[in-house]
Each structure stands twice: as C-alpha cells, then as structure tokens.
Amino acid sequence: MGIADLGLLGLGLLLLVKGADFLVDSASRIAKRFGVSDFIIGLTIVAVGTSIPELAAAISASLEGETGFIVGNVIGANLSNICLVLGMTGLFSVIRSTNTGLKRDGFIMLAVFLLLYLFIILGKLGMLGGILFIAIFAAYLAFLSRAKDDLGTEGEFHGFVRFFVKFEYVRVITGQIRSAKIAFEPKRFKGRPSMARRQHVKDAALVVLGIAMVIVGAELLIDGAVSIATDLHVGSGVIGLTIVSLGTTLPEITVSVNAARKRIEGLALGNTMGSCVTNVLLVLGVSSLIRPLPFDWTTAAFTAPFMIMAASALLVMLYRGHIGRRGGAFLVGLYGLFMFLLIGLFSQ
C-alpha cells in the first residue's frame, strides 16, 4: 500500500465531500429563487445531498464493476452512523428518545435493514429489487413530508406500511408537484439588479464546480480503493467497509458532536436514521439498476448481521428512554469490536 494510493483515496474523499456541499447549497439557493417549493427541494436536493458521496462512489463503482465496494461502503457507512455518530454524540450529551424517533424512524430503519438482508440471503439485488428500493425511498420521503408528531399512530411504522401499500405516496408527490409554483423569473434581491445576476452566476458556477468535484472525486476514490485492496490482497469491499465509509461519515460525526455541545443533540438522531435508510434504499437501489449487486458469504454471515445487531441495540436504548455516556461508549466500543473482528477475519 503506497503513499500515492492513500493520497489518491484521501483526495477523492475530500473532493466528494466538499463537492457535495457546494452542489447541495448552491442548487438549493437557485431552486428557492425560482419559486420551487420547500417540499420539492427537500425531496430532491437536500434529501439526496446527505448521501451524494456514497451515491457518487456507488455509481462509479457500478460502472467499473466493483460491486463489492458498493455493498461494503453502504454497510460500513451505516455502522459508522449508528455507532460513531450517535456514540460520539452520546459521550458529549444525552440523546433523548422520542415516540417518533423510536416508533417511526427507528422501526423503518430496522425494517429496511431486514429487507436488505432478505435480498442478501437470496444472493443478489437485481433491477426489480432496485425498483422496489427506490419506490420505498420515494414513499419514505413523502411520508416524512406529511407525518407530524401529532398524527398519533398514523405517523408510526404501521402507518407507513399502509401509506406504501395503498400507494398514497404517489398522490402526495404528484399533489406537491402540481401545487409547486415554479416561476420562470427568479425572485429579485433587495437592492441593485446586478446583485441578482452576480449571485446567479456564482451559484451556477458552484453547481458546476460541485458536480465536477463529485465526479472526479468518485473516480479517484474508486481507483485508490482498488489499488489499496490489490496491494493488501483483500477485496475492494473491505476498503469500502473501513477507510471509505469512515471518511464519508466524518462530516456527520463533526456536525453531530458540535450539535451535542450546543444542546441540539436531537438533530443527530433523525439525521442518522434518515441517512441509513437513504444509503440502503437509494444508493443500493440506483446501483442495482446499473449492475446487479451480488452478495458474498461475508456480507451474509458477518457484516450485515452486525449492522442489524447495532440497529437493534440502538432501538433498545431508545426504548429505555435515552442514550447517555454509557450508551455512547457502548456504541463506540461496538464499532471497535466490529473493526477488530473484521481485521481478524481478513488477516487469516
């Protein structure tokens, strides 16, 4: 494993993360000025934006045939989100459990993990499975846009199941699109007209720059990961499980810890669960449309069950009411145990 390969991988991660930031922020501002509704912005730009690094890397890996990397990156990112993001947050503050966080977001996350494991047992995720994943993801976003804490049981997991089975999400999404008043002239800034033009040019340039950074970053990331995997004589999925997944979740860890210090630790819980659901449904769903995703024995017997176990442990903590320092230390230790077992498994 050479320094050049590590540098390639690190540069790819940096370009992916920063490019995603530029793309999401600038695209959101442009859409807002053209009168696009908050729902549409949230449904497309913001919701997908948190998983752009994983999605871009997955698409690049699919095109290059590195399907093991995709699965490893998604499972590794989910473990990092659950164990490190929430664990580190719990060490700095107390994450209070809410009815919504447990009975809606938590149960949906666990159900998505179990659905993924069903396809893992079957051996692969093909095009039909990918379409199903994307449909569930669309329903999930539509459900979140409609569900409020005061909806009672209708806002819980079984309410989401009915919402999906009855295709209510189609009505919600189409209704929001029809009601969105998209103006063809951007809203004017207060002040000189030239300010609006300069801001448009700046945001458009940042969108183009963000897209370019994401594309180049994804290519560099995959090339670096494959080179490192070859030098270490392991599969690219192992690199996705470890270095890459940890790198793509570092921004979430930083944001969550800072939020905990500012006593807004509840932000980490919703973002983490939503990110896990997005990683499985959107990233794997889109990737399987490009190329079927096969699953190996390591995924079926070790990594996926460990992810489900971590999610189950999280829900138990939430059921008990909160995640404090002990819970945070347990989650961080759980991630350390996973890495220890993984290294031992592939060092034999």
- The helix-and-strand class reads mainly alpha
- Radius of gyration, in Å, reads 20 Å
CATH architecture: Up-down Bundle
Quantity of strands, as a count: 4
Shape: globular
By CATH's scheme, which homologous superfamily applies? Answer: NCX, central ion-binding region
Mean pLDDT, all residues: 80
Low-confidence stretches: 181-186
Strand proportion: under 5%
Topology:
Blueprint (H helix, E strand, L loop, with lengths): L2 H31 L4 H12 L2 H13 L2 H26 L2 E2 L2 H24 L1 E2 L1 H20 L10 H9 L2 H12 L13 H40 L3 H26 L4 H25 L2 E2 L2 H24 L1 E2 L1 H22 L2
Antiparallel strand pairs: 1-4, 2-3
Helix pairs in contact: 1-2, 1-3, 1-9, 1-10, 3-4, 3-9, 3-11, 4-10, 4-11, 4-12, 4-13, 5-11, 5-12, 6-8, 6-11, 9-10, 10-11, 12-13
What is this entry, summarized?
The protein is 82% helix and 2% strand. It is mainly α and 348 residues long. It has a single domain (3-346), classed as A middle domain of Talin 1 (Up-down Bundle).
Question: Which features characterize this protein?
Answer:
single chain, 348 residues, two-stranded antiparallel ribbon, 13 helices, 82% helix, globular
Describe the structure.
This protein has helices at residues 3-33, 38-49, 52-64, 67-92, 99-122, 127-146, 157-165, 168-179, 193-232, 236-261, 266-290, 297-320, 325-346, and strands at residues 95-96, 124-125, 293-294, 322-323. α4 packs parallel to α12. The model is unreliable at 181-186 (pLDDT under 50). The strands form two sheets. The chain has a two-stranded antiparallel ribbon. It has a two-stranded antiparallel ribbon with strand order 2-3. It is globular. Helices cover 82% and strands 2% of the residues. The protein is mostly helical and 348 residues long. It has one domain (3-346): A middle domain of Talin 1 (Up-down Bundle), CATH 1.20.1420.30.
